[in-house]
Amino acid sequence: MKYNYGVMKHVSILVPKGNVSVVNIAGTHQMLSWVNALYSGEGKLPLFALQLVGIEKALDPQGGLFAITPEKTIAEVQKTDLIIIPAIHDDFEVAYRRNQAFIPWLIEQYKEGAEIVSLCISSFFLASTGLLDGKPCSTHWQFAQVFKEKFPRAILTDEKIVTEANGIYTSGGAYAFTNLVIYLIEKYAGREVAVLAAKGFMVDIDRSSQSPFMIFSGQKNHKDELVLKAQEYIEENYPKKISVSELCEDVPLSRRTFERRFKQATSNTVLEYLQRVKVEAAKKELEKGRKTVNEVMYQVGYSDSKAFREVFKKVVGMTPVNYRNKYVVKSVEA
């Protein structure tokens, strides 16, 4: 991370049209304003010049439960340093149509040196500009597969909570935006201020993965019937020992062709898919807290505890024991 302490940044927090995340907008504004207040208390000039920026200043009648009125329009902001894009909860095509006037402005500002921040599923809108092509990025884990299909040129690292590449930042799902804002505070105000902000807003400053929060439900948003049949077989028989040869028995394809089609349809190899199905089943059992880790391991089809721990940690980002301790409800002593 490169630091640039003490230099005031003009921050444009976008107010897109439609059902946008008021939490993203208000939360970002509050956290960066907190830094300004801290600086003011120390006799320093504010670090962030914050403005709510929209396509027009009028209140959007198609907004969600709460609507926010922009302070400035993109036509009035000739130069900015940091652009924050909140999540837009409308259908992607609808969100794009309503907000496409932002796109040439975003591209131009980026060319002029502005950095751009995408929060949660606003990665869909940012990707539509082409600015995520060839860059690592994140989004809400629930929409990872759809994102990969729509924007294959972007490098989706959906397990990451925060990504940074060439002045473009993205965050994972929902309230993960607070981790990205803390990351930005550290970049511009330093580690000490970031730690204070993290404590004040109760944000786990070094949390880097959203893997523990992911729920694997199978990548079935495709039309390959042979692959769908194989997926269903895996999900019904995952405790058993399943081989690729077994899956290919009733399929009029060579093993190599079948494996290629499976990977193309699901973004996983057959082995990866089987591992993820097993791990998801293990997670559900561990959350109940009624069985030991070894009992769960045997239940989902593993007999080697070392292999089970390694696969589980690779997929979830923590050990089975730590996962169980994290989610099992503990009794509260009176």
Explain this structure to me?
With 334 residues, this protein is α/β, with parallel strands linked by helices. The chain has two domains: 9-213, Class I glutamine amidotransferase (GATase) domain (Rossmann fold), CATH 3.40.50; 225-325, Homeodomain-like (Arc Repressor Mutant, subunit A, Orthogonal Bundle), CATH 1.10.10.60. 45% of the residues lie in helices and 10% in strands. It contains 14 helices and nine strands. It has helices spanning 22-41, 92-99, 102-111, 122-127, 144-150, 177-189, 191-200, 225-237, 244-248, 255-266, 270-288, 293-299, 305-316, 320-327; strands at residues 9-14, 48-54, 72-73, 82-85, 115-118, 136-137, 155-156, 162-165, 168-171. The strands form two sheets. The chain has a seven-stranded mixed beta sheet, with helices on both faces. Strands 6-7 form a two-stranded parallel sheet. α1 packs parallel to α6, α6 (177-189) packs antiparallel against α7 (191-200) and α11 crosses α14 (320-327). It is globular.
